[in-house]
């Protein structure tokens, strides 16, 4: 039996911490747990920041965070889980970007950190203390990493691009003539 090394323990800590935070944020959106707004409140918020339709956007963000976070914490389907979570965090970063970098002033720092960590885990893999390892990496193949990240990047760019267009259109409509 092979002893776990520092890399495996470090990846476990990153997965548990990042996955746990993401899963909690997703549960806030989907179920209203941990003081969250739940699906209807999140749908309203999504509409208010330019993601439409609001309910579909709330479900997508909630599932990407809760599902991706849970799977990352378990180390299961790590490429898809990390890519989904990274995509959700890119969407959150787009909302916070006008406020600058630091979270203290409403910036994208927190979302970017979670997204980059999730993407990094998708690339590095979960380590040996994971369900992927137990399952002989059936849902963690090397080809899945670029596929999951590319598919998520394409979808994320389309969603954020559509949001940006809606936000610009609304800003133009609000300007006096």
From TrEMBL:
Transmembrane domains' residue ranges: 143-162
Protein's name in the database: DoxX family membrane protein
Keyword Membrane: yes
Pfam hit, one: DoxX
Membrane is among the record's keywords: yes
Membrane topology classification: Multi-pass membrane protein
Organism: Streptomyces ortus
Superkingdom of the source species: Bacteria
PANTHER family xref list: INNER MEMBRANE PROTEIN YPHA-RELATED, OXIDOREDUCTASE CATD-RELATED
Subcellular location: Cell membrane
Lineage: Bacteria, Bacillati, Actinomycetota, Actinomycetes, Kitasatosporales
Family per record: Belongs to the DoxX family.
Keywords annotated in UniProt: Cell membrane, Membrane, Transmembrane, Transmembrane helix
